[in-house]
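Comment thread on ticket #2218

A.B. wrote:
> Attaching the input chain for the structure job we discussed in standup.
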Amino acid sequence: MFPPHSFTDDARGTTAVPFLKSPASARLSALGFGGAALRAPDAMFLNPAGAAYLPQGGSSVLLGYESLLEGSGRTAVAGFKGLARGAAGLGALYRYETGLKKYDIYGEIGDGFEAYDAAFIGFYGARFSRLDAGAAVKYIRSKLADRAAGAAALDLGMIIKSKESSGTDVAFYARNFGPAQKLGSEPAPLPFELGGGLNWRLVPRLNFFIDARLPADHSPYLIVAGEYAISFTSPPKTAAENPAPAADRSGLLLRGGMNFKNKEDLGFMGAFSAGFGVKFGKTGF
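C.D. wrote:
> Ran it. Output below, let me know if you need it in another format.
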């Protein structure tokens, strides 16, 4: 279930389905793939405890698309429903390759072929007074030309919530735990990862994230990120002026992060990421 020389750089390139390594979310991409203690729909792809926040009767839908290199891309879809003491949801990830060609032993081009990876996810999260916990079960399917293989994986996570609005939430998770996938003659382990993180709310509009990651196919590394909200309207002086909670107010969100996983290989700009989001009530882009 783990590659040789696990949790070191000597294990690079030894795991299957690498599309599961990076959470499929523009928000998490802008944060350098940090945000283990984030409580949002996006969290289902990283720490499933973060998606347990929905109140009873509430619902959320997430749609995402990434255009990757050389005619490849990835799509993410998820839907959630708030229950009496938690939330449940379903999701899917799909990564595809286009324009692939076969070559014979003489270098002559033959027909094209298909390659894709997909994951179908079922999620449940539970809310407690000081703790959110969540679990996600994945069925993974991969195809490369005439070879196909399946695998199953489990994600578990928890977030210890601060009593204070300006406090710090603490998160722990384990994801992509499952048996190796065999696509061809040799099995390859899944990209298992342990992680933890903090969400430190320095001021009401600023979330500061520090994540520590321990992947099976890489040495441990840190991620430091932040998200700052600029409201389109002035904050209400009293609750009666604007009864909507702060999470539902419209505004601009500025994000940035430093992921030290590949800093030695790619330099500062290869480790830095940034982005923004726009929120209109309960809808975010």
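A.B. wrote:
> Thanks. Noting for the ticket: The chain has two helices and 17 strands.
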